[in-house]
């Protein structure tokens, strides 16, 4: 699959989870004890044999660059190809108002020199707010065999009446896309939803992006796919397994808690031929002291647990003091919880400090968020 | 032009460590797992890096596959460097001769060309058998200050253990005037840790003389040190007082693992001022089931615990199923303890499956000794394995034979 290049949108949907993306891109949002969101997409690409990945960034991408480094952790530190960060391209003459993009299509237009300069025939496009472990190689094979211009991954999802920004699709018996439109119905139900994971012929993408620039189009699906649905051939590829999108603080919380479910956890992490790679950090094993009691929780290395932890996700280096009870919480890297605390449905960002005796509670649908370096 | 290094380290990692029995059947002693996610070699390597030494030659000989793979390019210890870094030195063929490393001194002698490439003023000689944190830079400062030809790191050992060590006597400045290799009885309790700093010219001249001497065992403790002392060279003892454990036996390996536990562990892996580095893998976080009970233990990534774990050290990807119980044990990576099985006072090597409702070892209070289970074995369901037993393939076959 050296004939495929990957392209990841790292800032897409940042505004959906403003608390977590205030200081970072969506791609570098911490997830699942030791991962960042981009790890899932990057690992999926690498396991399909992709050796060249462009990561489109927009703003706040320092933490992302720190995470990706040389790309070595994903085996993407390569002699040629490997990982390439694509920051915004601003010329001295650009109109400051128009120079930063806000849509997927504008982001692609900004990266047109990367797209044109690639030698690969196919491109896999993906957002970075998706959590799944999928065999992209199978989708790429299906795309190549079908001779389509583009293949869209869809997932049958139950939609309620209040969702927005979701595209639902219809397709014929040959998996040819016949309709794609934004979901606006009042009534809910199962629909084939666009996952924003695509395999495209690179020339098709390049032409479409240049064409869009000439016509002043801004929206990828609306302006390119919808308009040309008769002229170009777009196929769909169904994903049957676990697939989650982080589109709100609540969904971040729920998806994290999904990991406590054995089936989800094994699907995401139990596949020995497709492990999820991430930047590794040197930390000792987790320490459970005499007074520790931990139930139904995921714990990273480097934690020191002296209290009680239930239904929670603890990132690396978290410390939980004596007689403290942590339940239904997500505690990010190096959070320190003192003694005699009670925490329920709390999300702490990195390096938060909860002093002795604090009693904090949110609710599952509205978890209480404590920002990076904050002290309570 | 090759840049000169002030001090380089030579790490002797070729030993079999036969007293670790089944654990070193397929791997060299320095590559034996310790403390959940470490290998024994991580300790001297981390000490080197923390002491500012960026050039390490690792001499391998016995079963080097796992060790070579583990070391890789040295990146985990920040020893992937453009000049220096880590180099694996295996025995080699030469025009006139080819031989295995016949002793510790011979291993260094055969690699004198490696040492000379860096023109170091000093050479630090280490072994890959010990768990400790030590600042070699402070020892080097002592060596320079004493204008020593050779400095030997020493620590106090109990009188009844002197027979296992090189024992020496030194005056108040630290100058050594007497050295005995593994004496039956001795007045002194000052023992060599097997950590030496040599001034390079002296090292080279003694190694060359030793190589020419056909009666020599080519060993530092037996030959080089006594010879240098007899010649009146300036040999100094550098006292070390911290935690130091020779993990050469199954008992000491177990004990040293247990020293990591407790609210104030004897050896602290969480010490951020002196980190121990190791190869980290992208294993998922470990999961604690709804009915899991874990106390006073170390648990590593990739584990799934549904049963009970007490006073134990678990390496990565260990699965303890519901109703299973692990106490006072050291479990290496990938081991599966099936439903209802009990493991007491045991060391279990990698990728072994303990069948459902089996019992391995007995309660530590009444046990005669540690039960050692080899790697990649399948202990059948409902087996009972007594205390103080080594379990290998043959042992398993006998269980199966007795049943059929």
Oligomer: heterodimer
Task: Report the structural category of chain A.
Answer: alpha/beta
Strand element count of chain B: 31
Alpha plus pi helix count of chain B: 9
Helix content of chain B: 10-25%
Largest interface: A-B, 40 and 37 residues
Structural class of chain B, by secondary structure, is alpha/beta
Residue share in β-strands of chain A: 25-35%
- Total of helices of chain A: 11
User: Could you tell me how far the N terminus lies from the C terminus of chain B, measured between alpha carbons in angstroms?
Assistant: 71 Å
The value of Rg of chain A in angstroms is 22 Å
The parts of chain A where pLDDT drops under 50 for at least 5 residues are: none
Measured between the Cα atoms of the first and last residue of chain A, the distance is 50 Å
**Average pLDDT reading of chain A:** 90
Q: Into which percent range does the helicity of residues of chain A fall?
A: 10-25%
Principal-axis shape of chain B: elongated
> What integer value in Å does the Rg of chain B equal?
23 Å
Q: Which blocks of ≥5 consecutive residues of chain B have pLDDT under 50?
A: none
Number of strands of chain A: 28
What shape does the CA trace of chain A take? globular
On the 0 to 100 scale, the average pLDDT of chain B is: 94
Q: What can you tell me about this protein's structure?
A:
The complex is a heterodimer of chains A (376) and B (404). Chain A is 23% helix and 29% strand. Chain A has 376 residues and is α/β, with parallel strands linked by helices. The longest helix of chain A is centred in the middle third of the chain and has 14 residues. Chain B is α/β, with parallel strands linked by helices and 404 residues long. In chain B, strands 1, 4, 5, 6, 8, 9, 10, 11 and 12 form a nine-stranded mixed β-sheet that branches. Chain B has a six-stranded parallel β-sheet with strand order 14-17-20-23-26-29, with no helix packed on it. At the A-B interface, helix 11, strand 14, strand 15, strand 16 and strand 19 of A face strand 14, strand 15, strand 16 and strand 19 of B.
